[in-house]
Amino acid sequence: MDSLPAHMRPERSFQGFILALQHFWAEQGCVILQPYDMEMGAGTFHPATTLRALGPKPWNAAYVQPSRRPKDGRYGENPNRMQHYYQFQVIMKPSPPNLQELYLKSLAAIGIDSAVHDIRFVEDDWESPTLGAWGLGWECWCDGMEVSQFTYFQQVAGFECAPVAGELTYGLERLAMYVQGVDRVYDLNFNGRDGEEKVTYGDVFLQAEQEYSRHNFEVADTAMLFEQFKMAEEACKKYLAAGWREGNRKQHLLALPAYDQCIKASHVFNLLDARGVISVTERQSYILRVRELAKACGEAWVHTEAGGAA
Amino acid sequence: MPDLLLELFSEEIPARMQAKAADDLRRMVTDKLVAEGLVYEGAKAFATPRRLALTVHGIPARQPDLKTERRGPKMGAPDAAVQGFLKATGLKSLDEAKIQRDPKGDFYIALIEKPGRDAIDVLAEILPVIIRTFPWPKSMRWGARSGKPGSLNWVRPLHAITATFGLETEEPDVVKFSVDGVESGQTTHGHRFLAPSAINVRRFEDYEAKLLDAKVVLDPERRKDSILTDAKQLAFAQGFELVEDQNLLDEVAGLVEWPVVLMGSFEQEFLTTPAEVIRATIRNNQKCFVVRDPKTGKLANKFILVANIEATDGGATIIAGNERVIRARLSDAKFFYETDLKTKLQDRLPKFEQIVFHEKLGTQAARIKRIEQLGAEIAPLVGADVAKTKRAAQLAKADLLTEVVGEFPEVQGLMGKYYALAQGEDASVAAACEEHYKPQGPADRVPTDPVSVAVALADKLDTLAGFWAIDEKPTGSKDPYALRRAALGVIRLIVENTLRLPVLKAAQSALAGLAVAADATKLPSDLLAFFADRLKVQLREQGARHDLVDAVFALGGQDDLLMIVRRVEALGKFLDSDDGKNLLAGTKRAGNILSIEEKKDKRTFDGAPDAALYSLAEEKALAKAIGEVKVEASAAVAKEDFAAAMSAMAKLRPPVDAFFDKVRVNDDDAKVRENRLKLLNEIRSATRAVADFSKIQD
Q: Which positions 186-245 of A are in contact with B (Cβ < 8 Å)?
């Protein structure tokens, strides 16, 4: 790390920070993926986590995933809440025995020294009702701030994880703010340069936050979204039904395209929710509908080659 | 005798589970030892975030030998039976069996001697079973082994097991076993950051000492003590006083192995937010303590955090980091509070139309209307102003829709009071916004302001009536809607405020207000029986006898809880006196004779006795006394003077005693016998003025 030029150092530059994490996990044998090319609420939705967590085959991956939470938009006025932010996701299956140590080393790699910082593993059980998934683990605290989520997946898409995968999720902006010592996310130094050359997080994302907040809360076309939800749901079911090879339920050939539609339905639901057009009772039924899709996709996945089917 | 040291070293155990886990470990191991005939001298268990540890000392080195006898077949039994007996007992031939004679014949008896095993072997057998069946509230699988069935479940990944057994004077042995790939040994680790290297341990004493050197305070009580002492001192040194918080202390002691107490501050301006909100923010989100100014009692702009490391910079970075987070949190809280103040409580009410209270019981808005109506009905009975009660009932739930309560549910009610005062509501109305939730449990304060009392009663009665109407009553340990607590709340509100409130009628009103069809005849009495049960539990917890409650309830038509309590108190005092005890004995004797004779004659002996048939002085005296006592006791009961009613009853004692002394009930003359039985029946009915004595246990 000492050999890095100043503008690449994780405590100076947001991109340097991301690169340091990628570098660290690449060294641990993870495949470094690029973000999934669909809108989703969290890195867990990426098929590299949701689907790859299922089945017996080993799988180690790390990637940045832009995460969209339409309801969290604040028109760029809140210092740390946004409808679009980055998660850094690590998944290791089976969970290695030293996953906690690896996590702590990764913090050291981004400039968090455990000799002066108080790092803690505080109970936090994770559950995703839309993915039919749960796990046990912690939220990881650094000096009283939650900086990551650490989970041993027990079940995903309604299936027991065998073996169990360990999942790490870093809230990148929050961690980088801490490391850079800024109080407002938009003040993060993105490229690590000074003066004229400096690009901030605000330069990159502030306008987007303002525009998407308007979109999410005020103008997103709800009639279209309702229609899109239905279409995605139907398409998902159609692909799932069509994917069974020769019609017998032994091998599935369309698990990934079907799961894309599940991701789509989930995001459309989040947009509708942000627009406030889904009542409390309906809300539950939408969540259940997405979960049914996720479960059926999980079922299809375990009948694919990567899912471990013979 | 040798000692056992056991340590289960894992990834971080949730703080809230540690105390029970330590206790379970001690209980399970010692129970099993005793069941194996290994009676130990003492045991103690400990927990830190990363380990459960147990020391059991004074375990016998060997189990005692066991001798048992086993009876076999009769002499001359078929060969198959004999062979079976030999196989089961391990005897080589019948020559090794004893013969025992009993009335049914001569039987073979095998003497089986089971030599005791070494305790270390027994431990090697029981410890893995205990680990595999450990009752964690939630447990998980991990790692490569979790791909196979039967893998270990533990609260978080289990990394090492230390298990040694031996005498103080000798090098102990490792209790050899393995659980799902984790081999027992004698190697553990110190503090995750301050002393992570491996430590070799022999027995509990050096284990605890070596851990301390490796920056791990094993005993949670010691960690709590040191946190509390340091926190108090740190606050005191700056002229402040720690706001103590036992639950928080328990929790933070479960989050650190090496507690280091530090103090941070936040901006003065945040102190304009209510103290409870500041405390909730700092406590719930950051697990930090707050401090106050001892002179004014007001919160100071300081907080106390408990770190898990001795930082090389003396804690400066840790304090700065925590201050940043607390500043952001308080800034949110202040923003929420100020936003809340911009909306009047009543303007929030329409939103309740959209919020379902319970699928079958309608919206929150409907519930608030019912509470308002019921509160207005109850108000005059408890001396509350009707208009204020209605206003309070309308506003009492409104704070549920505020930002602050959304964030910190535990300040519900309290925020309602603040917001009500801020918008200029009457003091009683504002107080009721907070107090109508009370009492929350047996230790909680009971409100006394009549408006609070009326709304609190209406709130709880509506809840009870509602869930009764849809048949969601508590069963066994399941009481998801906290109905027992609600009923106890009603009882305490009535009794502690000495209120006269017919609960049957109140329950009827509550049921009538519901939109669901409710059985108007069965449900109110059903609900009353529930109150009776709760009252019994409550009185029993206060030391009263539950049978006395039964005796009073058995009179029927009792729905005035205050009077029931008064009667029970008076009855209890009466039965403590000799008069009471003897009268109870006499009444019971009368009752016993009656029930025997009633059975015999297949009839009852109701109706007035015929004075003309009295032949003995004791009969006449008793009849006269009963007549007088009845009048006197009923008059006293009518005046609700139960002590006087009991004194009147006491007058029955001498004539009852004399009657049983001198009079033979079962006279040869059938008419006299019948008359005497009727007289006995009169004793029973006279005592019913105060209670059903037959329900009272001796």
A: none
- B347-543 belongs to CATH 1.10.3210: yes
Token look-up 């032994």 returns A250
Residues in a beta bridge with B173: B165
Are A144 and B325 a contacting pair at CB < 8 A?
yes
Q: CA B210 to CA A135: how far, in whole Å? A: 35
Measure the CA–CA gap between B87 and B95, rounded to whole angstroms: 14
ipTM > 0.90, yes or no: yes
Per DSSP, the three-state class of B614 is coil
**Paired sense of beta strands B158-166 and B182-185, if any:** parallel
What pLDDT was estimated at residue A281?
66
In sequence order, the 6+-apart residues with CB closer than 8 A to the CB of A272 are A222, A225, A226, A229, A278, A286
**Contact criterion met (CB below 8 Å) for A266 and A130:** yes
Q: Do A123 and B15 touch (CB under 8 A)?
A: yes
The stretch A99-106 carries a mean pLDDT of 98
| Residue B150 region by backbone torsions, left for phi larger than 0, else alpha for psi between -120 and 50, else beta | left
Best mutation target, B10, B12, B139, B142, to test chain A (most A CBs within 10 A): B142
Measured CA angle at A275 (ends A271, A279), to 5 deg: 100
Q: What is the pLDDT of residue B87?
A: 87
Closest Cβ–Cβ partner in A122, A137, A144 for B305: A144
Write the CA distances from A233 to A54, A252, A258, B155, B544, integer angstroms. 22, 18, 9, 37, 64
pLDDT in tens, A250-264: 999 999 999 999 999
pLDDT of residue A280: 67
Compute the mean pLDDT over every residue in chain A, rounded to the nearest whole number.
Answer: 94
* A positions 107-136 inside 8 Å of B (CB): 114-123, 125, 135-136
Q: Could you tell me the mean pLDDT of each successive run of 10 residues in chain B, 698 residues long?
A: 96 97 98 95 97 97 88 85 86 83 85 90 97 96 93 97 93 95 96 96 95 98 98 96 96 97 96 93 93 96 97 96 93 90 94 84 91 95 96 95 88 94 96 95 91 96 92 87 93 93 87 79 84 86 82 82 88 87 85 87 86 88 90 89 88 88 87 89 85 84
Give the per-residue pLDDT at A31.
98
Q: Which residues contact B688 (CB under 8 A, 6 or more apart)?
A: B555
Pairing of strands A31-33, B198-200: unpaired
- Tell me, what amino acid is at B607? G
Q: How many Cβ atoms sit within 10 Å of the Cβ of residue B420? A: 26
Q: Is A34 on the interface with B (CB under 8 A)?
A: no
Token pair listed for B635: 């008059």
SS3 label, residue B282? helix
Q: What does the domain layout of chain B look like in residue ranges?
A: 3-61+118-213, 70-114, 220-341, 347-543, 572-695
DSSP A171-222: EHHHHHHHHHT-SSGGG-BSS---GGG--BHHHHHHHHHHHHHHIIIIIS-H
Tally of residues, chain B: 698
Q: Which of residues 88-107 of A touch B (CB under 8 A)?
A: 94-97, 100
Does residue B32 contact residue B57 with C-beta atoms inside 8 Å? no
Question: How many of the other CB atoms lie within 10 Å of CB of B16?
Answer: 13
* Long-range own/partner contacts, residues B405-411 (CB < 8 A, 24 or more apart): B406/B336, B407/B332, B407/B333, B407/B336, B408/B277, B408/B280, B408/B281, B408/B284, B410/B280, B410/B284, B411/B274, B411/B276, B411/B277, B411/B280
DSSP state of A161: P
Q: Which of B141, B143, B324 sits opposite A97 (nearest CB)?
A: B143
Cα B143 from Cα B154, distance rounded (Å): 12
1.10.8, 1.10.3470, 3.40.50, 3.30.70: CATH of B3-61+118-213: 3.30.70
The CATH architecture of the domain made up of B572-695 is Orthogonal Bundle (1.10)
